[in-house]
Design a protein that fits this description.
- The structure is a single chain.
- Mean pLDDT is about 95; it is low at about 1-15.
- With about 260 residues, this protein is an alpha/beta fold.
- It has helices at about 40-55, 75-85, 100-105, 115-130, 135-140, 140-150, 155-160, 190-195, 200, 235; strands at about 25-30, 60-65, 90-95, 165-170, 170-175, 210-215, 220-225, 225-230, 240-245, 250-255.
- β4 and β5 form a beta hairpin.
- The longest helix is centred in the N-terminal third of the chain and has 16 residues, at about 40-55.
- About 35% of the residues lie in helices and about 15% in strands.
- It has a single domain, classed as Purple Acid Phosphatase, chain A, domain 2 (4-Layer Sandwich).
- The strands form 2 sheets. The chain has a 5-stranded mixed sheet, with helices on one face.
- α2 packs across α7 and α3 packs across α4.
């Protein structure tokens, strides 16, 4: 059982739309995109701990929906915090976000990935690993790649590489970005699970499971009946969001 890890600022019942269920002995907390905000992560984990402790005993697990890194100031520290959590014996699972994918490709030496990584918010990630502004400003791409290879710990790389693409619990499927609407869950390509947007977001019909995802920012939790979006733009808004699931109920926890 998950040790009482982490106060519910809010605990709202689900909207009056499709409400799935998970197995009776389980409780799941899904956490939206963190994007380098260690301060919000620590706050939200404390809220989850208090919320979990206030409820009856259950087999509790956490699912992080991806995009731990980029944009915010503390990506390296977020990775280290969650790597430690993963080693603690607690039930924690992680999904591969598009930002983890690009970060790993840039670290591997992909010459196209490194400029793209920097364009989508990678500079704060590099600085969080210890590079100073002047060195960053003077570095060309090969120098920057060499510095990253030397300063991003191998255990961080291995941790990020271990992330999953899809997690199914009861009537829910947890992914980073969404799914390809016209394909069964067993045939979803990784690219769709990490990158899809409009085709998934605008799909009006039910999916095989209710899809819980991040990736696309909304002002608050977005529940449409066939999907639940939990990316509330934490790096800019100060609102990092989690949703709890138990039997046929769900509720929201949020910083800020």
């Amino acid at each position: 059982m998950l040790r009482r890890l982490f106060s519910a600022l809010t605990a709202a019942p689900a909207a009056d739309i499709a409400c799935g269920a998970i197995p009776d002995d389980q409780r799941v907390y899904a956490v939206g995109d963190i994007h380098g905000r260690l301060d919000l992560l620590d706050d939200l984990l404390s809220r989850i701990e208090a919320d979990d402790a206030a409820r009856p005993d259950a087999e509790t697990s956490l699912i992080f929906l991806g995009d731990l890194v980029d944009r915010g100031p503390s990506s390296a520290q977020v990775v280290e915090r969650l790597l430690g959590l993963s080693r603690s014996g607690r039930r924690v699972r992680f999904l591969m976000g598009n930002h983890e994918e690009v970060f790993l490709r840039a670290l591997s030496g992909d010459s196209h990935a490194l400029p793209f990584f920097l364009r989508i918010g990678g500079k704060p990630t590099v600085l969080s690993y210890g590079m100073d502004e002047e060195t960053y400003r003077k570095a060309d791409y090969p120098q920057l790649h060499a510095w990253m290879k030397a300063h991003v710990p191998a255990d961080h790389v291995a941790f990020l590489e271990s992330f999953e693409d899809m997690i199914v619990v009861g009537d829910y499927v947890f992914v980073h970005a969404g799914i390809q609407p016209r394909l069964p869950l067993t045939e979803q390509p990784a690219a769709a699970l990490r990158w899809v947007r409009e085709e998934f977001l605008s799909h009006p019909h039910p999916f095989e499971k209710i899809v819980v995802h991040g990736h696309t920012i909304s002002d608050d939790v977005e529940e449409t009946g066939n999907r639940i979006g939990l990316d509330t733009g934490a790096y800019a808004s100060g609102r990092l969001t989690a949703m709890g699931f138990e039997r046929d109920t769900r509720w929201t926890l949020q910083t800020g």
